[in-house]
Amino acid sequence: MKEPLKPITPAKNWRLDSWQEKPAGQQPVYDDPSELNRATTALAARPPLVTSWEINSLRQQLAEAQAGKRFVLQGGDCAETFDECNSTIVANRLKVLLQMSLVMVHGLETPVVRIGRFAGQYAKPRSANTETRDGLTLPSYRGDLVNAPEFTAEARRPDPQRLLRGHACSAMTMNFVRALVDGGFADLHHPEYWDLGWLEHSPLADEFHRVAGNIGHSVRFLETVTGQQPGSLRRVDFFTSHEALHLPYEQALTRQVPRQWGWFDLSAHFPWIGMRTAELEGAHTEFFRGVRNPVGIKVGPGMDSDWLKGLIRHLNPDNEAGRLVLIHRLGADKIADGLPPLIKAAKATGSPVLWICDPMHGNTEKTANGYKTRKFANIQSELEQAIEVHAECGSRLGGVHLELTGENVTECIGGARELTEHDLTRAYKTTVDPRLNYEQALELSMLIVRKHQSLGL
Ligand code: PEP
Ligand code: CO
Hints:
The protein has helices spanning 33-45, 52-66, 87-108, 153-156, 161-182, 205-226, 247-252, 283-289, 305-315, 335-349, 376-392, 438-454, and strands at 71-76, 112-117, 130-133, 136-139, 239-243, 254-255, 264-265, 270-273, 295-299, 324-328, 354-357, 364-366, 372-374, 397-403. It is globular and about 60 Å long. The chain contains twelve helices and 14 strands. The chain has a single domain (36-186, 235-455), classed as Aldolase class I (TIM Barrel). The strands form four sheets. An eight-stranded parallel barrel has the order 1-2-5-8-9-10-11-14, surrounded by five helices. By secondary structure, it is an alpha/beta fold. The structure holds phosphoenolpyruvate (PEP) and cobalt (II) ion (CO). Phosphoenolpyruvate is lined by residues 78, 125, 243, 274-276, 298, 300, 329, 361, 433.
């Protein structure tokens, strides 16, 4: 039996609404506060999306990852939409994550913690509060939790009813994911269940089938040797995460539960604080100081050592294991110089942290014809550098954070099929950031394994 973690110590001078006394960035402005109040009151009475024991189990697994015994794969859409809350999109995204994790478990010889960026990834930070087109200025689109992307006054009006729809879509997604996982969809005996039709035409097909075949073989071998069917090989766990941006939504889903002290944010297992809302004295940091979930912090190029140390002390004053995940997203051209001082700063606090790399958000660019894109080569380069820099600094890259989809989109340039700028016009579907398509995502998981192997890690 594993030693259970000590519970996180209660935060001092914290209340469920103490964040309201701090400046809260990236919040929509609702034209009728009483309408928002009615929606959050209704939301606070709805059932939660996850449970405290699942959250504690993730925290235990993240503590093991901090100790070098697990690798984290976190991935999904930049922004989910209510329209895409459908079975095909949800199942395909799950399949890609399962396939990638299979490649990683096999190649890294380490258990993988699977965390979806789904079932609640509906709120987006924006660089400006408003958008102007042809002389008309309207509120920016802030994700389906807040408003709709069409450029009309009605669509862009922040609508509190969307908080309830966001909760309902998250619940439907969760329900389907749980049913698929429990029903054997993720059974390690049958990787063919998660095959996507495209795979047979892919340049990566042989390598994936070799890995899948080896795993099936190992599973059967283990069962023969032990004379039983280990239950844990029948299913795999999936955790959920989203950027915890919309604080009235998070507050309404943060609860106390029977027989446990403290507060759990039951909107997701793993909320993270985005780069634009990670101020030390800001409302998001204040809110997450008081919840018991493991919490992620995005670490961008603007964050210096003192700021990072302050955040770590604030959010994990008692240096508890499994509590903090630092998600660096510095960019392929900045990581080599930017990361070492941050690693040093985190070490100096004495807090255990898990470092994971988001190679997407520091590598976004615009093409000449106006598409927001990312080059696969830059994504690969940032990830490979991350693995190397951590090793050189006596640290360890403990996971990856990716924007991806199980669909055949053309949003990022490059990869095994060598997509070009020209291909972007074919299947560019994202409302916010460009995602890796299924094939680019699977390829990246193979490259992560290869890099570890080439460094003897
Ligand atoms: C995101 O993860 O979609 C995002 C907005 O990231 P960041 O906060 O790192 O910019
Ligand atoms: Co994004």
